[in-house]
Write a structure and sequence with these properties.
The protein has 14 helices and eleven strands. By secondary structure, the protein is an alpha/beta fold. Residues 238-310 form the ChlI/MoxR AAA lid domain.
Length: 323
Amino acid sequence: MRFGEVTPPRTTEEIQQVLDNVAKVVVGKNEAIFMCLVAVVAGGHVLLEDVPGVGKTLLVRALARTLNCHFNRIQFTPDLLPSDVTGTEIYNRETRQFEFRAGPIFAQIVLADEINRTSPRTQSALLEALEEHTVSCDGTTHELPSPFFVLATQNPIEYEGTYALPEAQLDRFLMKLSLGYPTPDKEQDVLRAALSDRGIETVHSVVNPQAVLAWQVAARQVRVEENLLQYIVEIITKTRQHPDVFLGVSPRGGVALAKAARALAWLEGRRYVIPDDIKRLLIPVLSHRLLLHSHAHLNRRDEKAIIEQIARETPVPVAMPRR
């Protein structure tokens, strides 16, 4: 990472400490850790898809401890009900009134573990929380804590007992990431860490939630020039016109890309977004928002390949931003 004059030295030091602290237990996944921090600063959420055992749960637990945020874990199962996630009204015999009993979604960092193992009805309980950061129950709207960050994990949909997430819910995740298997040398580091008991207990708090909120405010001051907004719109439009794409990126996807680019630029120490910020984020921010035609899958074309093609064919703005 490169840091500049945008933030005071203490803030840049804290950011690097956050990354290093999580990397102590999540070995060899620096890019995924950094992208999760981008999502936190942008005020978005992350969908982490991968096979079991690669460290998805460990990543979000380490991030929560590092940021010193109130953390809850929701284990999604086929029999989980929406009220088990959001909470419900409970009758209090002493007061003879119904009182709202908050569910596990009321936390600053929430791990929605194996989200695609529950029914679509329960999955939909997250829609309002992900977008509006509120929960509605019996006509009353309850505010969720700030900052509010959901990291949902899911196994590939080919696995038995999984349900595909609906498009409306996928669209509310800022990014979709994958950890993948570590390289052989990094896997040796994983084994060493496990044998030396360097687990999640060794992760300490680096900052507090107030610092995270300050980062989010600072990132919103980063400029996105008009030519870069036009660049984003051109890419989004081409996803809707591509012959292999049945459903292209929504306007929400374009907003997500711009917000993530601002957060990335701020973390890199700049007051402005550059084209490389946008290009770096195209696949994690846009790939899960595409729905392909069946013939694309038959031709072994996936979302990543289509986005890469569109990026190659879209002229990159060359005008330098104002300093």
